[in-house]
Batch of 3 targets.
Target 1
Amino acid sequence: MKQMNLLETPVRRVFMSYLIPSVSATLVTSIYILADTVMIGRGIGAAGMAALNILLPLYSVYFGLGMLCGVGGSVLFCFERGRGNERAARGYFTTALLMALVFAVLSFFLCRAFFVPLLGLLGNTDSMAEYAWPYGRVLVTASPVFIASSFLQAFVRNDGAPRLAMAGVISGGVTNVILDYITIYILDWGMGGAALATATGSTLTVLILSAHFFTRENHLRPVRAVRLKKVGEIVSSGLASFLMEVSSGLVTFLFNRQLLACVGEIGVVVYGIISNTALVVLSVSNGIAQAVQPLLAMNFGAGKKERVREACRLGIRTALFVGILFMAIGLLFPVPLSHLFLEPSPEVLSMAVPAIRMYFICFPAGEWNILCGAYFQSIVRPGISLTISLLRGVVLNSLFVFLLPVFWGVNGIWLTVTAAECLTAVVTAVFMKKELTQNGAPAITINRL
């Protein structure tokens, strides 16, 4: 398959050629969990759905570790290739690969060894234990596969093969959905069967992505150029992506604990509806960011600032459109969204409708934050990207989830993410304004977005 020239092909054409494969790949990744949620909610019940929701932070950690190595290493890989330094680029790939292997081994052994206390920390209750235990056991056993999947997606896409990345993820996602139905409805394997379906789908994705190493267009070849300095650079570059992924797990964890304390398991069920829908939106956001990231990184490395500006404008405009679209869906159709996951009781529905509306207001600001963070990451300014990710994903959410309920009760929990995203958006706009005024920087004119 012929690869596009990221340095010469018109920017809009390159962006569009990456956009659909990237969004498709990240969107299907969310289906791994979304399919489990729908199948479990309808085939097992609300208690199974609540148990799944308390385990989602683990999946976020595994996927985030793969992104830490994959996105962090592939940004530097693209940057060095843009400068014409192939050996240095392959050195970053080799180092990132070894890091991913180390994380995979550690996650497998540590999570299996400390599974029981880990389950208690996540918020397991007596009524959820029979559902959380079988799903969680398979999830932690398959952790190396989840790490490998997100790692390979980043590098294969950045090595000019977005369609292969899309094919791998879509194949895995479709397999997951089919096996979910078979294991839950036909074989009656329950939660363990749903987890097995997810692990099998991810394994297929890894196998398909690995085919890239045997193509003629492959530049991902290991070299003996591993240095401890490169580890630090990859972590610095990828930490924002890691936090963006893991923060969704952290927010889920904090929300679950607060909701259990405030309104009990019904709150966790409602949040399961919201968090899984938000997972789809986040996947689309990540897909847009990943579509523009290779274009930004390679052209910045080559010093082509006008192409960097054009790519950034395209990415942000697309992201804002998507954010507004999803916000409108939440405001107008909260009842159909609730019925998508389970047959809600009147009590669940009465809480879900206002909760969805309050939460979904966050999406336009969130899209702005994610795309601007990807921009700074791609132009090798990881400090600013990390600051944005920390604010929106960890600092403000952790603060507001405890502070806002003091004034507005459970509604304060539903408004937490909206408040965090909007405040972060203001800070991000200040960073972008400063970028505009820096001499010679590939700045973005905000009033032209």
Target 2
Amino acid sequence: MEVIILAGGLGTRLRSVVQEVPKCMAPVQGRPFLAYLLDWLQMYSVDHVVFSVGYLKEPILDFVRGREWPFSYDFAEEQTPLGTGGAIRLALGFCREETVYVVNGDSFFPVNLEAMPCTGTLTLALQHMEKFERYGAVSLSGTCISAFQEKKYCEEGFINGGVYALNRSRLDMSALPEKFSFEKDVLEPLAESGSLRGWNGDSYFIDIGIPEDYGRAQWEIPAWFAVQKASEAVLRADADTLFLDRDGVINRLRPGDYVKSWEEFEYLPGILQAIRLWSARFSRLILVTNQRGVGRGLMTDADLSRIHAHLMKDILDAGGRLDLILSCTSADEADPRRKPNTGMFQDACALFPDLQARRCVMLGDSDSDAAFAAACGMPFIRLG
């Protein structure tokens, strides 16, 4: 599997917060953004990476050369800006395989590369979005991309996620000028001819090209990897029932506060896809959550019910399920239903008489969750 990473962007819109390094080297929690892209690629059988570099290339060269990698690599170095098309054509000269994957170096769209088809000349990984205007929507006819719309507000639709699978022998760019746009001069003509395919990547997506989204990336990208690692452990568990915590596992914690309304609820990146996998793996998924904000009068039982109604709908829409939601709203630490006490586990046992702790596993993020699992007699997996 060969991958080209387009790492030569100028990063003009990000210069107010990131200077003197290219966008792909912008720090995310103390590591270059490029490091996370490479972490993702190493989840698959990638054995050759071509780094397409130009503007401020030295930090990229130093970073890659200064580490050991489980793949071979080359640098396709632009002497003058070639545009996205010229950069890809130059990088393809270093490739050997018939199918080559191309990844934008300033966005993180960790699709399942092994599941991504390369039918025909070129396939784009698409991301479904709601209420967006920063990206142009993609018009689809079945699996064929028929057109690219101009940037404007859209209630929902698919966008180009910046991950491509192309067939080298079928994609002929030899007649194009030295500098050209891959989007305008390759993708749009292919769409007009009916030769461009779209594939729903169904993954987390973020583009760090503007300061606001770069700020979100500081927690979202590490959180995505934490979810993947926890999910792998969950799927390996010798169990038929999964207990899971809510805050810090399904949604982002609000330090020093509570999630008091649906508007304050932020999913951890990748968690809905993970729950879909867990739903296929386990006979039962049971949510057990302490919600002391109700007991302290900061929110109502109705507020909590509305949050959980939205949560159930989103999980069902994503192809997953929750079989039971149990919550303890008491502010009393000694309440027998409040984790780490075992009351909610006993409630679950009353509803499912065949439930056995030795056939359960608990996913949580706190010492309280770990103590709850230990008291119930089930293994514990920590997210984070």
Target 3
Amino acid sequence: MSGSIEIKENVRLAPLTTLQVGGNARYFVTAETEDAVIEALAFAEDKGLPVFILGGGSNVLISDTGFDGLVINIALTGVSEFAEKDGTRYVTAQAGEDWDGFVAHCVENDLAGVECLSGIPGFVGGTPVQNVGAYGQEVAETIVSVRYYDRQQKELVTLTNADCYFSYRKSIFNSTHRDRYVVLSVTFALRKGGEPKVVYKDLIEHFAERKPSLVEVREAVLNIRRSKSMVIDAGDPNSRSAGSFFKNPIVSRDKLGELQAEMGNIPNFPFGDAVKIPAAWLIERSGLNKGFALGNAGISSNHTLAIINRGGASAGDILLLKEEIQRTVADKFGITLDPEPVFVGF
């Protein structure tokens, strides 16, 4: 015990992650308030310990040796709504709120802006870090501000959307200022009575010509995700994953032209002056199909982008499969696939 927080030792981390792999945390604390987060960080600094901030555990790969420092499990909860202005409702969610629970709350209250992000595992606090996105929507579209603790300046600060420098799966939280800020809450600007965003191919085809409601879009997204085992389900071994393991690579139009001259048509979509190629397509076309297994790790039989723990997998098993996929795609296409999850304790 340290002050008002309880510091535990040698806590198993695997059960706290969706991949269900990883060793122990040397020290572990559950932080339910901003003060608890600050106190835990002071404990780590006093002892000279590295710190890892753990949210919902849905986007991490923890090493078999665990983490030789302090793991702070963010457990701040609560959702509050502010005044509406010109049809925009401002909603603040604490970092430890379940993300899909928050999306459900918004949809139930007829608030548009996050409906396509239904079913994504993890906590609210992790969404600005990676600029979480799916089915044609990103959190950067609705985030107004992020409240965080600055470990360097030792103060509570609020960043505006522009200050976060959001781009594809990126923000200052996982790039230029990695490990400096601890997200405590996020404020979103949502449209009361707004129309859902239907720009993703699967959704456009699903609804054909008609205009769906927010509830219908949420249900459609959940059904699509379930069909790909991208909704956490204890009864579905394919969902024992970290979600999409690789980012869709961004390549120049010249590179795309070279590949298409050699291999024919390659699916792609515009990304500024470049194009994005679906990583799943690259993996499949390199010969690694759904259900491919390497020891206790495998590719989901429902989604090529998900690496799964087939049962009893170690972090080492997951890494070996990751490297096999990267090598095979690089040999075939000359493209390097970058992983999405955060690697901890390696």
